[in-house]
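Re: your question from the hallway

Yes, I did run it. Sequences:
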Amino acid sequence: MNAAFEKRLGIVWAILSAITAAQYLVLTAGKGILFAPNAALTTSVIVVSLVKVRLILREFMDVRHAPALLRRVADIWLAVTAASLLGPYLAGSLLWAS
Amino acid sequence: MTNLAIPAGARNATSGTARPARTLPATPDIWFFVFFEAFLFTAYFTVYMVRRTQDVGLFLQSQAQLSLATGVVNTLILLVSSWSMARCVQAAREGSMQAALRNAFLTIGFALAFLIVKVSEWTVEIEKGFSFTTNGFFAFYYFLTAIHFIHLLIGFIFLGVVVHQLRQPVRSQPLIETGATYWHMVDFLWIMIFALLYLMR
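Structure:
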């Protein structure tokens, strides 16, 4: 197998797994697992998870070599998903705070 | 039909590592399907987020009944399955059929591991008394994990097609990549389900 490409796929997998492990460690850092509303944590969870998804799309699914239309559709979906998850969440937490 | 808009030279079985700067992996049809599904799941996720704001306390208490470690294990399994799938496609592009087949079977093995972990997780939750009708959170938990599970089961058909193609004397690289593209979708949809059910607070 092409050594450079094989190495690149391995690095992408290692990054994705390391992010997942880090997400676990952040939640279990204190005494037991955190179960309280936390807007900063949730925002970062959603953004970081979408970064993971983008890595899968671009590297594993080869979107980075695809025509511009596909690359744009992928990024539009990521942006729409970020807005439709964070929008209700942040609006809800503001309502709760007031 | 399948080589629509794909340069002929880049797609035959003996093509090497060099690919033209911009080529569409797999087939246009599977990409249409993937983004149709992606937007559909975004709609499910949005409904979950809106419903969650109406009863944050209940959703947090219910989230505490899930095993975070099990969710992490399932995520790591799908990530490694995506890696072996990508290696399978790369090996097939280079004509290394043994390596491609080995990675295809590895992917099927990881898919089975996910299936076993998911079914045992459901068993534990049901034994604890949490079912679809327990509350709003568990309705979403069972709906999202079950609809994802159905996609995973359909994934076995795609993976079977990949193995079948890899064993043909004249194989279709776009069909192999179509199976791979579907499989990566199963992975990335789970990444978001994992974030919403297990990680967010």
